[in-house]
C-alpha cells in the first residue's frame, strides 16, 4: 500500500478478501497560500501568537496539489489575493453539483471578500448557473455530497436556513446534521465521504461521532451503518478532513489509526504533512473545492 510517511499499514486481513476500490477522476479548484497567515481568531485552532512559515505552507500545499495530479485528477488554481490569508481554504467558497454553482456567504467578516473572487472565477470559466446564497453558507466546509444527497452541517458557521436554500438552488435532497464541538466547527472537520453512492452500492463515509448531536448521530447510524467511526485521536489531527477518490484517501500524516482502519476496508491511505495549514484550522479537504459537472 502507498506510504507517504514511512508508516506501514498492518492488518490481519487477506488482501484477496478486500473489496475492490475503484478510483474516479476528480476535478478540483485550489488556491495557493501565498498570503497565508494567522492574523485573527475565528476557530479554536488559530493562535496569532504562534509563528507561521509561509514557505512551508506553500510546500505542503504544493505536495497536496501534485498528489492529486499524480492520481490523474484535474486541478485548477485561483489567484490568491493579499489581505485574504484564509483564501487557501477553497472548499469554503462554493458547492458545485451537476455544473450548478452555489457560492458562499461567510459568517466571519474577515473572510467575506473571498466569496466574490470565487464567484468571478466560476463566471469567467464558463459556469452559467452561479448563484450566491442569501443565508450564511460556508459551502463545502459544511456540505458533503454522497452521490445521492447533500449532508449539511450547522451549529457554528452555516445557518440552518441555508440547508433549505441549497436544496432549492441545487435541486438535491439535503440532510441536516448538527455539530456540537467547537473544535469541529465545519462538517468537513468531522465527516468525509470515502466512496460516493452508485446504482449498485450505497455511499460510504467516515466520521467522528463525538462531534455531532445525539440526534445527528442516530441519523448517521441509520444512513451509514457501515461507516468508519473515527477515533478522537485521529479527529483531533484533522483526520476527518480527508479527501477520497473512491480508493486513494489523502489524510494528515498524524492520522495513522484512521489510515489503518481504511486499509482494512481496502482503501489506499496517503499520509501528507499539512501541519502548517492546520495552524489556521485547515487540512486537505479545506484546501480543495470539488467541481462536479
From TrEMBL:
One GO MF annotation is: dimethylargininase activity
Q: Which residues form a coiled coil?
A: none
Keyword hit for Ligase: no
GO annotations under biological process?
A: arginine metabolic process; citrulline metabolic process; positive regulation of nitric oxide biosynthetic process
What Pfam families has UniProt attached to this entry?
Answer: DDAH_eukar
- Catalytic site positions: 186, 286
Q: Which domain of life is it from?
A: Bacteria
Q: Which InterPro entries match?
A: DDAH-like
Q: Keywords for this entry?
A: Hydrolase
**Record's keyword annotation contains Hydrolase:** yes
Q: Which NCBIfam families match?
A: DiMArgaseDdahMtb
State the PANTHER family in the record.
DIMETHYLARGININASE (PTHR12737:SF9), DIMETHYLARGININE DIMETHYLAMINOHYDROLASE (PTHR12737)
Family classification: Belongs to the DDAH family.
Q: What is this protein called?
A: N-dimethylarginine dimethylaminohydrolase
Amino acid at each position: 500500500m502507498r506510504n507517504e510517511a514511512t508508516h506501514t499499514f498492518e492488518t490481519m486481513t487477506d488482501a484477496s478478501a478486500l473489496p475492490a476500490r475503484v478510483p474516479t477522476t476528480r476535478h478540483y479548484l485550489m488556491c495557493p497560500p501565498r498570503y497565508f497567515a494567522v492574523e485573527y481568531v475565528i476557530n479554536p485552532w488559530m493562535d496569532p501568537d504562534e509563528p507561521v512559515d509561509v514557505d512551508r505552507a506553500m510546500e505542503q500545499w504544493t505536495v497536496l496539489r501534485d498528489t492529486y495530479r499524480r492520481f490523474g485528477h484535474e486541478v485548477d488554481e485561483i489567484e490568491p489575493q493579499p489581505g485574504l490569508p484564509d483564501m487557501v481554504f477553497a472548499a469554503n467558497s462554493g458547492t458545485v453539483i451537476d455544473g450548478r454553482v452555489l457560492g458562499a456567504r461567510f459568517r466571519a467578516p474577515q473572510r467575506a471578500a473571498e466569496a466574490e473572487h470565487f464567484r468571478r472565477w466560476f463566471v469567467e470559466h464558463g459556469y452559467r448557473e452561479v448563484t450566491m446564497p442569501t443565508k450564511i453558507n460556508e459551502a463545502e466546509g459544511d456540505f458533503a455530497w454522497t452521490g445521492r444527497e447533500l449532508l449539511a452541517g450547522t451549529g457554528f458557521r452555516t445557518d440552518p436556513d441555508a440547508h433549505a436554500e441549497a436544496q432549492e438552488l441545487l435541486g438535491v435532497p439535503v440532510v441536516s446534521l448538527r455539530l456540537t464541538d467547537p473544535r469541529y466547527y465545519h462538517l468537513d472537520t468531522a465527516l468525509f465521504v470515502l466512496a460516493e453512492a452508485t446504482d449498485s452500492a450505497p455511499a460510504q463515509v467516515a466520521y467522528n461521532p463525538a462531534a455531532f448531536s445525539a440526534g445527528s448521530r442516530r441519523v448517521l447510524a441509520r444512513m451509514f451503518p457501515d461507516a468508519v467511526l473515527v477515533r478522537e485521536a485521529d479527529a483531533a489531527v484533522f483526520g476527518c478532513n480527508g479527501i477520497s477518490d473512491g480508493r486513494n484517501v489523502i489524510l494528515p500524516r498524524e492520522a495513522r489509526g484512521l489510515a489503518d482502519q481504511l486499509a482494512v476496508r481496502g482503501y489506499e491511505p496517503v499520509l501528507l504533512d499539512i501541519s502548517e495549514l492546520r495552524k489556521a484550522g485547515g487540512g486537505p479537504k479545506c484546501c480543495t473545492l470539488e467541481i462536479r459537472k
